[in-house]
Design a protein that fits this description.
This protein is of the alpha+beta class and 188 residues long. It has helices at residues 2-19, 46-58, 71-74, 82-97, 109-118, 130-140, and strands spanning 22-24, 34-35, 41-42, 122-124, 146-150, 154-162, 168-171, 183-185. The protein contains 6 helices and 8 strands, in the order H-E-E-E-H-H-H-H-E-H-E-E-E-E.
């Protein structure tokens, strides 16, 4: 079992290094903020973003496939659950703050991305140099934003902290293992 976890973590780390290129800001939803032509994200409330980040962090170490506790975020479905976790947390933050994000949520990462694109809160750092990515992240990403990675497979998580070097922490639902400790991501 541990070798499967180590293998998955290694694969995720490799994908991070090779393909990390997409970010979505859920807090700017519903057209109130979003990505401008220049690619900057605006709008949204820090109260909502902080609620999303705080709720995500409250699940660290509490959901696991081993004991089936992750099924609470999937509606009882046994499936890859990173997008379910993001959907669940954002839904809880909406309940807590009274905010509505019309149509946000899906068990599929691609659908979360599509929602971001349709609602003007999707930013891509694909094609940027490492320093451009780092600067874009510093200028635009905030706690509570939703990180999306896409390659042959997709993955998502919630940003909980952004550092001045462009790296950031996330909390993610990872298949085969529990909600991860905050994971530091560095733009490549």
């Amino acid at each position: 079992y541990q070798s499967s976890i180590d293998s998955l973590q290694s694969q995720i780390d490799n994908n991070r290094q090779q393909v990390y290129n997409l970010l979505v800001q859920a807090e700017g939803g519903g057209g109130s903020g979003g990505v401008s032509g220049a690619g900057s994200i605006g709008g949204g409330s820090s109260e909502f973003g902080n609620a999303v980040a705080s709720i995500a962090q409250s699940y660290v170490g509490k959901l696991s496939e081993a004991d089936g506790s992750y099924l609470q975020v999937t509606g009882g479905r046994a499936e890859h659950w990173c997008a379910d976790f993001v959907t669940y947390v954002v839904s809880k933050a909406c309940e807590q703050t009274g905010k509505s994000l019309n149509g946000f949520g899906s068990p599929a990462v691609a659908n979360l991305r599509a929602w971001g694109e349709a609602n003007g809160c999707y930013g891509s750092i694909d094609g940027m140099s490492s320093s451009q990515k780092a600067q874009w992240i510093v200028n635009n990403v905030k706690p509570g934003d939703v990180m999306i990675m896409q390659n042959n497979s997709s993955h998502t998580g919630i940003v909980t902290k952004v550092y001045s070097d462009g790296s950031f922490d996330t909390v993610e639902g990872l298949s085969l293992i529990h909600i991860s400790e905050p994971t530091r991501r560095t733009p490549i």
